[in-house]
Amino acid sequence: MGAHELKPVFSRGELSPKLHSRADLEHFKTGLKECQNFMVMRQGGLTRRPGTQFVQEVKDSSRPARFIPFIFSASQAYMLVFNAGAFRVYTLGGRVGSVEIAHPYADADLFQLDFDQTNDVLDITHKSYQPRRVKRQSDTSWTIEAVNFRFGPFLPVNDTSTTLTPNGTGNPIPKMTSNTAPSGTAAADATVAGAPWQAFDRDAGTLWNSGSGAQGWLSYTFPSARIIVGYSVQTTTALVTGLPITDRAPKSWTFEGSNDGTNWTVLDSQYGQSNWSAGERRYFRFTNTTSYTGYRINISTNNGGQYIVIGELAFTEDISTAPTITITASSTAGINNGAGFTTSDVGRIIALLGGNAVYSAFVVTTIMSPTAVQAKLDDAPLPIAQGTLQWRLGAWGNTPGWPAHVATFEQRKVYARSNAQPSAIWATKTGGYGSFLDFSVSVPVKDDDAISFTLTDVNEIQWIAEGPDLLIGTAGAARTMGRDSPNLPFSANNFRQSLASTHASQAIRPAKVGNSTIFVSSFGKALREFVQGETGVGYATPDISVLSDHLFASGIVEVTYAQEPDSVIWLPNGRGDLIGLTYEKDQSIAGMHRHLMGGEGFVESCATMPGQGRNEVWLIVRRTIGGVSRRYVERMAAAFEAATATPEKAWYLDCALQYRGPPATSITGLGHLEGRRVGILADGAREADQIVTGGAISLASGRPATTITVGLPYISRAHLLPSPASAGDGSGLGRRKKIVSAKVDFLATGSLRIGRDEATAEEIVARHTSDDLGTAAPLVTGFYDARPQTSWGDKGELVLTADGPLPATIRSITLNTDPEP
Fold first, then answer.
1. Upper half-sphere CA count for residue 188 (Cβ side, 13 Å)
2. Burial level of 612, CB count in 10 A (0-12/13-18/19+)?
3. What confidence tens digit (pLDDT) does each residue in 541-565 have?
4. Neighbour order of strands in the sheet with 141-146
5. Which of 485-489, 554-558, 625-629, 658-662 is predicted least confidently?
6. Element spanning 398, H or E
7. Of the candidates 350, 346, 440, 360, the residue with the CA atom closest to the CA atom of residue 395
8. Residue 407 near residue 127 (C-beta atoms within 8 A)
9. Which of 46, 311, 345, 642 is surrounded by the fewest CB atoms within 10 Å?
10. CA dihedral defined by 438, 441, 446, 447, rounded to 10 degrees?
11. C-alpha R_g of the chain
12. pLDDT mean over 317-333
């Protein structure tokens, strides 16, 4: 008695050989023995992978290339191709003009780049390079430049006996002893108890006040023009009988520059500066590229007192022209593990604790010896020049290394992992990632201050990603960083780190899929999902590739995600295959499929970006053309939709080009496929394959066509698992059986062969005698009864293959098997 077995879905795709006898599993019923160049659809059926469009050869095919997407919006998306020391820009299936921007990254480092985008700025990190930013001014105007960072981040505070002593404060204003000595001029609009120069004498115990009014200005004029980019205001520490210091502190003001003492330009404005304490210093930074001789603080209101009091007013000069100071160490202990300063420390930050209990940051410009450097101020000046045990070296630089990873979280730019601190994380001030990265910390600490900490997990951080918390993959665990108190904002006063699981990661950038983050396991041979628990408490990291682990035996190179149309995670592997995982949790779809590119193409990089009505999949494919290795930029074509397209528009050839125009019998411009056998679709009909010669082919039929697609053919294969059907006396798995017939439900299918193997497979018949034989055969939709050549030794397996230039979609298969009793 025959058994009828319905296979309405293939939601698990290609299953591992380890499961080929697990007929007891529900996944066995929805899995395949092989799924090559077929994709699992979100609806559960199978459809051929679309072919690819040839876009352009990379700049230098002898060197590796890698994609980085640049997505400003769904309608303004670009693909950057990094290759041979430069990147080019692509969009809408083609290159943007002649844009080619030099970058500093070595070929071997391209696939270790991490990136994070905010609006029109793309931040790029690598452990061996200072962070960079790619900026787009217009479609044809792009830049890449080093990211400036200030006020940190820093290594832990020195814990040795080494003292660092500066020979200056960094303040371009000298220590004044009168309004005109030793140089320059201090002035104010009014003076009662303190002369103007007493706000520039390095002593907050002396002061300037405005007289009896709550308004006034205080200025300093240099002998020659300077570019000032910051200033600090400090309240006095002196006790003045009458009103509290907080009342006499300035509240609202402008900071201004002038070259004639009459016409003043506003450089900075502050409002509502309240709640001062005695001796408190507040620092204000602004952007300025113009040199002025005179600068003043012009105060419009104070905090309620009868007059204004300022203890100290100090300036910061632009670092390009700022005065240089010498910082001398008493020993090399604590400096670069006892080695002292080295030439690679040029550009590194040193922070010294001043007598006001606030650190001031200096940038190293010259190495004089292992115990002495020259540096320039890039912060508020020190109150006085004196030695200190309380100093910190910058956490970033050529000596300690640079951050390897970057993400945006809770309005902060977050960086992670350096050579010196492999488990460290640094987050900027809230919103502090504009023209420079702001790692400043206040005294006392404020909620919006920068955050720096080291994970309790000593393993190297492999990636970071935004989620409900900051998700962190390390070489030994999965961790999170987020709010300690969930009802309060994430801040320097409210954060915590937690262990999510002990599943380790590889240093491959993860992909965001809905509420999940998909990452690669520590040895690169499994995919895991970082997902919050169903109750919203805690996290889990389940393996979502265990049923198809054989596809990752050669490792994973990249992870990228195309949401539309079929929610596919794309993963090039170490063999050059392109692995796909159709992942739709709500529909219980998690189907694996593998793709071998036509012409033995080797996929080296894959990325996705929004396109017209879909997420586009871009590939860098290495091919051998005329005996020479070429690297091509290719874009996966759109899947065929019978409701909106006609067969001649189908694109099921790789590295292909499509001609549309007046009727033609030959196609030129195919030099990128010189010497290769190509498939041809002409006005929806399959033509005989041809060899590209002189960059051209001719149609064998000689029939002119207006739409001709030419490219490399590939085989799509769906191999069913052994049928477990029986005669009703237990499992039929392993018993002899043969398939009597198969009823296959097709959707818009052009050509497909069905059989126990490819050698005996029979082509489905789509044309009838009543059809117009002078036109292309129609696409098949509906049920097709096949009676394949099978035998009792076939185990009830069936193979469906397609190798032509037309689409094929399988909605279900019903097998009529005859099992032995």
1. 28
2. exposed
3. 999 999 999 999 999 999 999 999 9
4. 114-118, 121-126, 129-138, 141-146
5. 485-489
6. none
7. 350
8. no
9. 642
10. 50
11. 35
12. 95
Using CA atoms of 434, 435, 441, 446 in order, give the dihedral in degrees to the nearest 10. -30
Q: What is the pLDDT of residue 29?
A: 84
- Residues shown for the chain: 821
Residue range 450-478: mean pLDDT, rounded: 93
Closest to 119 in 3D by CA, of 136, 99, 139, 103: 136
Q: Which residues pair with 165 in a beta bridge?
A: 328
Burial class, 555, CB count within 10 angstroms (exposed 0-12 / middle 13-18 / buried 19+): middle
Per the DSSP assignment, residues forming a β-bridge with 166 are 327
Burial classification of residue 774, based on how many CB atoms lie within 10 Å of its CB (0-12 exposed, 13-18 middle, 19 or more buried): exposed
Q: Return the beta strands (E) in 103-227 as ranges.
A: 114-118, 121-126, 129-138, 141-146, 149-150, 164-166, 185-188, 208-209, 216-226
Largest CA distance in the chain: 114
Using CA atoms, how far apart are residues 436 and 428, in angstroms rounded to an integer? 10
Here the tokens at position 545 are 């590739």
Which residues lie below 8 Å from residue 462, measured CB to CB, with a gap of 6+? 405, 417, 473, 474, 475, 504, 505, 506, 507, 508
Q: What is the dihedral of CA 250, 254, 259, 261, to 10 degrees?
A: -50
Chain centroid to Cα 595, Å, comes to 25
Closest CA to 752 of 796, 720, 715: 715
Residue 430 main-chain phi, psi, to 5 deg = -55, 120
Model confidence at 586, pLDDT cuts 50, 70, 90, reads confident
Question: Quick check: helix, strand or coil at residue 164?
Answer: strand
Q: Give the pLDDT confidence of 516-526 residue by residue, as tens digits.
A: 999 999 888 89
Nearest to 712 by CA among 782, 577, 805, 633: 805
Q: Compute CA 15 distance to the chain's CA centroid, rounded to the nearest angstrom.
A: 31
Q: Across the strands, what pairs with 148?
A: none
> What burial letters (b/e) apply to 525-540, b meaning 16+ CB within 10 Å?
bbbbbbbbeeeeeebe
Give all strands (DSSP E) within 611-652, no chain letters.
615-625, 628-636
Determine the residue type at 129.
Y
Nearest-angstrom CA–CA distance, 543 and 501: 12
Between the alpha carbon of residue 458 and those of residues 424, 466, 471, 474, 605, the distances in Å are 9, 21, 16, 9, 31
Q: Which residues pair with 131 in a beta bridge?
A: none
- 673 phi, psi to nearest 5 deg: -120, 25
Torsional class of 97: left (φ above 0), alpha (ψ -120 to 50), beta (otherwise) = left
Alpha-carbon distances of 443 from 386, 447, 749, rounded to whole Å? 20, 11, 70
Distance of alpha carbon 27 from its chain centroid, rounded?
Answer: 34
- State how far the Cα of 636 lies from the Cα of 643, in Å rounded to an integer: 20
State CA 373 to chain mean position distance: 37
Of the candidates 309, 456, 337, 352, which has an alpha carbon nearest to the alpha carbon of residue 399?
337
Neighbours of 271 (CB within 10 A): 10
Structure tokens at 583: 């992942």
β-strand 216-226 against 185-188: which pairing, if any?
antiparallel
CA–CA gap between residue 47 and residue 331 (Å, rounded): 70
Residue 790 has pLDDT above 80, yes or no: no
d(CA 593, CA 582) in angstroms, rounded, equals 8
The CA distances from residue 802 to 36, 252, 805, 810, in Å, are: 10, 75, 9, 12
Amino acid at the residue 660: R
Supply 650's token pair: 């189908």
- What tokens does 8 get? 């309405």
H/E element, 475: none
Placement of tokens 């004089």 in the chain: 368
The stretch 450-464 carries a mean pLDDT of 91
Alpha-carbon distance 291 to 221, whole Å? 12
Report residue 632 as tokens: 């091509």
Separation CA 51–CA 714 (nearest Å): 9
What's residue 1's pLDDT? 47
